[in-house]
Every structure is written in C-alpha cells, then in structure tokens.
Amino acid sequence: MKMLRRWIGGLCMVAVLPFASPPFADPARAQSVEDLVARWTDALGGPERIKSIENIYVRSKVATSGLEGVVEIWSTSDGAMRENLDFGGLFGSLSVFDGQQGWVLDHNGKLREIQGAEMKDRITSAYFASFSPHVPGRRPGTMEARGMDSSGHYYLLDITPEGGLTLTYYLNKDTYLPEREDRPADDRVQTTYSSDWRDVDGLLVPYSVRQTTGDPQYDVFMTLEEVRLNVKLDGHEFDRPAEGPKDYRLTRGADALNIPFELTSNHIYVQAKVNGQGPLWFIFDTGAGVTVLDQARAETLVLEMQGQIEGRGAGEGSTNVSVIPGASFELPGVELINQTIMSIPLKSIEPFEGRVIDGVLGYDLISRFVVEIDYAGRMIHLYEPESYIYSGEGERIPIVLEQNHPHVAATVSVEGGEPVEGHFTIDTGARTALHLSMPSLKVSPSPSFTTTMLTLMTWKRIGVSLLSSRPAITPFSSMPELTVRYS
C-alpha cells in the first residue's frame, strides 16, 4: 500500500473557504513562485487561518482491486503524522512519524524503523500535511514555478521539502486549488487526482481522491467520511508503537539450527509445511518483503485468497497479488504462526528454474532472527536475537531496512572503470552476484562495467542489486576484476 501512504501528506490539498476573497486577477500574470503561493495561500484562507490549524484528523474509505478498508490519519502543524490502515482485519499497518523519527507496524505485528528512501517519503508527506508551503518558518523546502501545463488549465509548481522528494502540483488557473499531484514512485510516477470539494467548518476538502501509476486495475480510491480540526490529543499518538506478540515458536531448543537447503541457480530452496500440509519448496529470499505462496498451490491447499492488489518485483511489470490470512509455516526447529501472506502465480517461472516453486519465504521469517547461511554446508541457522552472541572473525556492516528489504552502502570498482558508490539491496533471491541499474552505468560508463552483469555467477554468498530503475545487461567476452567495498 505504498501508494496510499504517499497520499497522507495530501492534506495540503484541502482549501479553507476565504471569508472575503477578492476576485482573481488575470491568470496569465500569476507565473512566479511568489504569485502562485500567495494565491494558493489566499485560497486556503490566508496565513493566519492556516496557522490556527494545529492538527487534523481524517477518516476515509479505501478501495483497491477488490479490497475495501478504512484509513485514519492524524497530522499536526509541526509535521507529526499517524496513519492506521485496516482492510477489515485482513490486512493493514500502523505508521507513525513524530517529525524526526518514524516506525511501521506491519500486518503481522512486526515493528521496524523508517529509514533511507522511505524516510524521504515521510518527510515529504509531513511537509505538506503541516502546510509548510504556506507558513514561513515551518518545515523547510524550495519551490519552482514551471509555467502552465500543455492544456493551459493548470499552473505547474515543483515543490521539494528539505530531505524529501520533488512533487509537481497542478494548480487550477481559476481556483488555484491543487487538483493533481505527481510524485516519484520508484521508476514510475504516481498521480493523485482530487475532486468533489466540500465545505467542512470553513475548510474545503476533496472528498474523492484517486491514485494511479497508469494501470487502472490497480488504482486506489479514497472517499472521505470524516474531517475534524484541532482535535484533543492524549500526547502519545506519535510515540513509537509497541511491537505485536511473538508470532513464532522454536520447537528444538533455544535456536533453529541445521535447516537444510538445496541450491539451484544460486537460489536457496528450503522445505516448509503450510497449515500442516506439505512439505513444499520455498525460495529463501532476503529480497522478498512479504511471504508469498503460489496461487495454484494455495488453491490446492484450499486457502482463502482475497482481493487483487498490484505486486511488483525488480522489473517493470506488475502482477495480481491476493491476500491470504491465517497461514502458518513449519520448518525444522521453528514455526511461524498465523501469518497474513500474499499469493501470486509462480508456475510461469518454474521452467527457468527447472524445478517446482511453491512460494517464497522472506522478511516475515528472516526479520525475526539472526540468520546464518552456510553455503558450503547447505545449512541455515536461525538464532534468537536476544541471546545471540557473535564469535566469528567477520566484519560488521550496517544494514538499513527499506520497504522490508535490507540495504547497505557500498562502492563497486571494476577494472577500467571509475568506482561507483551506491545504495544496494542484499538479495539472496538474486541469481547473479551483482545487478547494476542504468543510473549507475551513467556514472561509470566503462564497457567492462556493463559486461560484469552476467559473469559473476560463482559468487554465491550474496546477491546485490543497486536500487532504482531497471538493470542493464549486455553480452560479455571477458571477466573483469570486480571489488565491492562496504561503507
């Protein structure tokens, strides 16, 4: 539900009805940032009116691809935000941002800190929800006027919160209300349309909001049900949430040791039972943000699948993802209990693997433990974090979790090319050792750099994928020397 979270900051799109608004001047003259922001601020009711809003509470219905739910949002003038998303107990999350730090409590009760690129997204939402473009001295940012759009109906205004993302607002040339917002969404653009503006205690609110990234079947629709200004807060709404109860059970002692796996095309395969049925074969994948079960296998196991939301992997395509509640997994020495998981069709990729793929075990399992992968011995060891003590000779490398994926800062050097510093995903589900995106190749356009993609099949310890855009792979003729240094 990344698209929905990106809408949270859109409370800046509400407009306070002016008490005595003067008629607008010739729209063609309002081209500068100062003119646009002044008119926008006037349409919102003026700076004094906006300053009087200390916090806002909004409750909306949410619908997407056969799923319906409710989202509640609290936001304050200093940028604190709280979002509670609930799809009828089937799926949901709690997100809290106190203005400086943030946390996400996911659908299985696991808490993690908001970091990296996700933090940029939250900073952006907080900037707009706090009306910072209209009240000097709040959260810092910059604005740039880009004239009118090609239709001649909207003024374009690029706004960049400090430490955040650049959003493009489309201000109606007659009302100066922001009827459209464009926001970066990985390698795409997420567009939010606002309509059905209604007066709520002098506040003009868009009661109908649609988010899209281009494919209508995955659009998100929000209908506002309630808006309240300056509500009484208990002072703890923006505290760090408490993590849910432990959702796993160790069955063979203090840790789950010696879980055997098979290695096929550099993919780790482990066996697990689902709700007592199986065993089934799962890819053990640090790059999987959720646990996945093949849709055909879910039907065979008579598991209930609900909805069809959009799922995306490393490539450009999308696939239909259904939600399965109440799934439990049993591996040697450990059980993962009462999980909400996702189901997608996996049979189409089995010919490329040359074996059955029943599902993918990722963040929902891996995040609960300290994980040791013994490639030479073909064993996985899961340790309780509270009691684990490392005694080896390895080097500690800081890891950042973004969208449930582990990331590291690293520098890649290739013979004949300039070193490239990047933000890398640690991905045991990657078949090759290193994938580089197009932006990285623009930094270091060495021919030997592009040939590295298909040559590093022997490095089985880790899969690394530079975030952003699509990978670039070209034929190779030689094996250049490659070095990866972690920051």
In short:
This protein is mainly β and 487 residues long. It contains 9 helices and 32 strands. The chain folds into 3 domains: 2-140 and 182-229, Clam (outer membrane lipoprotein receptor (LolB), chain A); 248-383, Acid Proteases (Cathepsin D, subunit A, domain 1, Beta Barrel), CATH 2.40.70.10; 406-486, no CATH class.
Question: How would you describe the overall organization of this protein?
Answer:
There is one protein chain. With 487 residues, the chain is mainly β. It has three domains: 2-140 and 182-229, outer membrane lipoprotein receptor (LolB), chain A (Clam); 248-383, Beta Barrel (Cathepsin D, subunit A, domain 1); 406-486, no CATH class. Helix content is 13%, strand content 43%. The protein contains nine helices and 32 strands. The strands form four sheets. Strands 1, 2, 3, 4, 5, 6, 7, 8, 9, 10, 11, 12, 13 and 14 form a 14-stranded antiparallel β-sheet that branches. The radius of gyration is 25 Å and the shape is globular. The two termini are 31 Å apart. The relative contact order is 0.11.
Structural topology:
Blueprint: H1 2-7, E1 15-16, H2 33-43, H3 47-51, E2 55-64, E3 67-76, E4 81-86, E5 92-97, E6 102-105, E7 111-113, H4 116-129, E8 141-148, E9 154-161, E10 167-172, E11 178-185, E12 188-200, E13 203-212, E14 220-229, E15 248-250, E16 256-260, E17 262-264, E18 267-274, E19 277-284, E20 292-294, H5 295-300, E21 306-312, E22 318-331, E23 334-344, H6 350-353, E24 359-361, H7 363-366, E25 370-374, E26 379-383, E27 400-402, E28 405-414, E29 420-426, E30 434-435, H8 438-443, H9 447-451, E31 464-466, E32 482-486
Parallel strand pairs: 19-24, 20-23, 30-31
Antiparallel strand pairs: 1-13, 2-3, 2-14, 3-4, 4-5, 5-6, 6-7, 8-9, 9-10, 10-11, 11-12, 12-13, 13-14, 15-23, 16-26, 17-18, 18-19, 18-22, 20-24, 21-22, 22-23, 25-26, 27-28, 28-29, 28-32, 29-31
